[in-house]
Each structure stands twice: as structure tokens, then as C-alpha cells.
Design a protein that fits this description.
By secondary structure, the chain is of the alpha+beta class. The strands form nine sheets. Strands 20, 21, 22, 23 and 26 form a five-stranded antiparallel sheet that branches. It has a four-stranded antiparallel sheet with strand order 4-5-6-7, with no helix packed on it. A four-stranded antiparallel sheet has the order 8-9-10-13, with no helix packed on it. The radius of gyration is 27 Å and the shape is globular.
Amino acid sequence: ASQQRQTQLCVVGAMRIARVVALIFALMLAPWIEDRARDASSSDDAAFATTRRGPGDRETMTRFGASLVGALHDGNDTDYTVGVTVDDDGNPIGDAVTQPARSMVGFVQDCSGFPPTQSGTLCGARGAYLHGHYLYVAAAQVDTVSVVDVYRPDMPTVAGSVTDAKVLKGVVATWMHRSGEYLIAVARGRRPEGFGHVALIDVRWDRWRTDDSGRYLVSPRVVSHLANCSTDATRGLSSGRLCGARALAVVDETAYVVSEMSNSLSVVVLPARLSKDFMGFAPPTIVPEFVGTLVDTRLEGAYAVAVNGANAYVASRWCKTCVVLVSLEDPGKPVVGGKLPRPGVLGQFDVVVSQEEAIARIALGTPLRGVEFVAKGVEADSAFAFVTTEFDGRVTTVDKKCVSFSADLGESVQQCALSARRVLYDLDFPADPRYEYRANARPNQASG
């Protein structure tokens, strides 16, 4: 027993000695480890400008204090007109802060032929939403949602698309859910029926891949949808909640959808995610569901919507210069008449049925009319905006100030996409000979 006790003491003593030696060794290595970590961090910072990030990575947008940052250097000494700065190694970095020297910075176009036999991924390009450095574009003419990579704002390229002749028939608007796992798309259908849909499109990581050049490509997939529109064969009229679904606004897990043929605003609850949670449990549902719908003649031909607090603001044909306010205090029973603070009286509210859009714009921060073809989701500090062109299937990067200027004048934002703002930009006319536009790079033809 005595010998066994001595053996245990020896083992314990040896373990204590080993711990002391390990501690001393760790203290000796600490400065070397810190230096290596610092060197690695510096190397990462220097290389950041030329490393393409994956879907949903907003670090790319903010690392250099700008909304859209991408490497503009392609191995030559091209004098880009969007403004260029350099990193620690002298490599040019996209400058998204300096105002571009011309209204149009770059574009991608993918559409050929004439309606109704057009082909391409961007025919009938309308609503778009920016998430990370990817634009999710509704292409109404070809029932397609296309993903456009704007990592290089001066040279956007198509990175993938999904087509559905039924669920995405006449798709007009998109919005990325805050989870980043799926996209909400609104399709209005074809006239005269106008069978509208709200579709959820899966863009999770397993839908992405890289090509030989390291560029991310995506294969989106429609996973669920919501529909509510039918036709009375005897009268030839469509009725339902989503006939001619036209626009949406999304707040957290709720989508607010206006439909021009139904004269309605529908409140739709969205799934929190598509993926299983950390415990391995699947979400209760991945299908959008109605919460409530308002049908009102003052929403006739409703074609734009925005939400601020407990009020929705709807642009309709009922009034050309004003917007209709809808109270969302009870999402199951939205009603016309939003509550706004009474001027000069603290804690008092007035019920307001309509409001001039110029006044509503102060609360919303953006107009409702005239910006249907301007991508949503672009951060306030970005120097760029993105304009879609329906008739020729084009997505154009433009100077954001040009879009604001056009909206203030009540003129078409297409002027910016056509480089027709000659009053603001010397380079819009005459054309700048140094600037070259290159052919669109399809996913299977991607280059650097």
C-alpha cells in the first residue's frame, strides 16, 4: 500500500511539472504567434480588394466605407470613369463614394427577339432587389427571376436564373427575406385573367457553386407559392385577393402585397427560414399564408406600396398625386385610414385617408411613383443605383444622384440609363471614347 501511495504521488508530481513546462513554453511562443497573426491579417486586408465574396456577404459592401466595393482592375491600365483608388499593394479598388463622371456606369443586357417570342434572362426586366453584391431581377416577359452579379458595378454579369411559366408568370417585383435564404417574388399573371402569385425562391448556399475563374453562380429554385385568383367563366371577370399582383414591401416576416386588378392590399406571413434550426428541426411551414386583405375602391389599380410603422402607403389610380394610407394595427383587418401624429399636440393622432405624395415622401424617405424600375435594397451611402429597362432586357448601373434628380423632376429614371443627363454630366455628351462596354458574360462564359 505504501509503495502504491508513493507511485501515485510521483504521477501527480510529474503532471504538475508537465503543466508548468507547458505554460512556460506557451509564454515563450506567444510573441511569435501574435506576429504571425498580425502578418496574416495584413495579408488578408491587402488581398481583400481582389477576392470575390459569396452571396449575402455584406462585408464586401462596407469594408472600405462604401456600399458597393469590387475590384475594377482586370490586368490592364484601363482608365475607368467610375473613380478608382488603390490598396496597400497598389491594386485599384472600386470607389463607390466618388460621384461617377457620367450618369451610366455600366450595364448588362440579355434579351433577343420581339414579344411574345423573346428569349434571354432579362427580357421585360422590372423590379429588382440588391442583396450583397447580387441583384435579383424580375424579368416579366420571360417569367424569370435572374441574378445579376454587380461585384464590378461597371461590368455586371448574369449569374443564374429560374423560370416558371405558371408561378412566375409576368413576375414584376422581388424582395430578399432577412434570413438571406430565400427571395419573395410577386407575379401578376397575364391579362385578362391576371392570375397573380407570391412565390418563395430558394437561394441558400447549396444552390451556389463556383466556375473555373472562382465566380459564384446560382441555380435558384421555386419552393412554394401563394395564389388567390379565379375567373368567372360566365362574366369573364377575375376575382380574388391576388389578381394582378403588382408590388410588395416586406417587414420582418410579413409581406404587404398590392394587386391592381383586385384593388387590394394583402398581408401575408412568411416563414422565418427554409433550413433546419440548430437543433435539427425543420420550420413549421415554408409556405406563405394570408393574414388579412383589404379591398377598397380607393386602391383601384394599386401599383406601389411602402410601409412605415403601423401604416401602409399605397399608390393607386384613385389619386394621381396622393397616396392612400392603410392602418396595419390589426394585420388581420387592415382598414383605410392611417394614424398620424397630430401636429403640435403630443400623444394625439389623426386618422388620415390620403396624403400628398410629396409629404408622404418625407416619412418614407423615397417616392412611390416613378421608381418601379429602380432596384430596392441599395444602401443610403452608395454612389450607385441600378435601373432596369423593360423593352430591351437591360440592367444598368447608374449614378445614384442622377436617379434622385430624375425623381425630383418627375421624369423617367431611364434618362440615367441612356446617358442622357447632359446637363449634369459632361461625359454624357459627347460620348467618352476611353470607356468601353463589353459583351455580357453568360454563366458558362464567365471570365475573371
